[in-house]
Amino acid sequence: MFLSKSVELFTSRIGKLKKILKSKGVQSFLITGDENVFYLTGFYGKDSGSLLLLTEDSLYLLVHFIYLEQAKKSIHIKNINIVCYRKNKFGKLVEMIDGYNFKNLMFEGKNISFGDFDRLRKLLSGQKKKLISIEGMVEKLRVIKDGLEISRIEKACRTADKVYKGIISLSASGIRSYKEIELAYKMEELMIKNNSSGKAFDIIVAYDKNSSLPHYNPGNKKIKKGLILIDFGCRFENYCSDITRTIFTGSNKICNEFKKIYDIVLEAQLMAIGECREGMDCRKLDEVARNFIESKGYGDNFGHGLGHGVGLEIHEDPVISTESKAVLKENMVITIEPGVYIENFGGVRIEDMILVKKNGCEVLTRSNKVFFIPDRVRS
Predict the structure, then answer these.
(1) What is the separation of C-alpha 322 from the centre of its chain, rounded to a whole number of angstroms?
(2) Beta strands in the chain (DSSP E)
(3) CA dist., res. 364 & res. 265, Å (int)
(4) d(Cα 134, Cα 139) in Å, to the nearest integer?
(5) Based on the structure, what is the number of domains in the chain?
(6) Could you tell me the pTM of the whole model?
(7) Residues 129, 163: one domain?
(8) Same-domain status, 347 and 277
(9) Which pLDDT band, with edges at 50, 70 and 90, does 211 fall under?
(10) Which of 66, 113, 157, 161 could lock onto 241 through a cystine, CB 3.0 to 4.6 A?
């Protein structure tokens, strides 16, 4: 039963894409993004360089020999031709399409290197075919999550919550026994123990002044009493979660200033969550949090967008920012993550995963947002 539903799901996705391509007069489309290949076929060869070619009447998956068996076992949809190559994949591709009379091969420009683009362009010129980039064809389908995707994302979020609970249960004194990088590895260990297939991105553990760096790489700095920003995500069956918490492990003279900033960031986040629903402009949602932070005097210290979509990739459409032209729709999954960062002082960010609904939203990450972590945590 599950297999038949899976086949139906992938077949439906391919059908939707073909309908879009036909409406645009596209006769051939080359898909180069690993996540897009998976979304349409069920085969996920991370960094495999696989190619999925759609023509008006055929569907080809071109994989290296290393991934051939995996592809055969992963794909159950009918009418897909799995083609194996051992050396020159673009040469094999051009050989495959030699008998087709289309003049333009459309492809995903953002998912291919310039070197590969130039190599393929030269090969196609021998058939008098042009390589033309179009973007966002599959991504536009991926932006609205179906029931299966939402279920997997929810499980990734549940795992993230368990990981965070495991860290907090160490208590402040336990957390202070780690270096930044050690705590990051501890979190990854907890992910695996809680049935995650691994981290969704490089874990951020930023202690003290390092927390003012939004995408800090944890180092060998020993954690002591003070501020710690933790940003991490788990994977469940290829789908991601993303959560950030900022905690304080002990009191000192600068704690009151951090608590003041924390309360501002938390209020900004809760205000944005309260306005999140179908039909909301992403730009306006960003403004809800940004205007509040600006009113408190920290506008210059909030230098990134409010959030982003999450799914097979940790950063997907829609973008929630002042420049965004997107509008929220039901079953989009986004983050809401305002932050305030003060150079050489520290930073606060609070992030949750949100499922957009018609008349509101559901917060998918449910970890508590307690700022002070005591030396002894009650079970």
Answers:
(1) 20
(2) 28-31, 51-55, 59-64, 81-85, 104-107, 130-133, 204-207, 227-232, 235-236, 239-240, 243-248, 307-309, 316-320, 333-336, 339-342, 346-349, 352-357, 360-363
(3) 19
(4) 11
(5) 2
(6) 0.93
(7) no
(8) yes
(9) very high
(10) 157
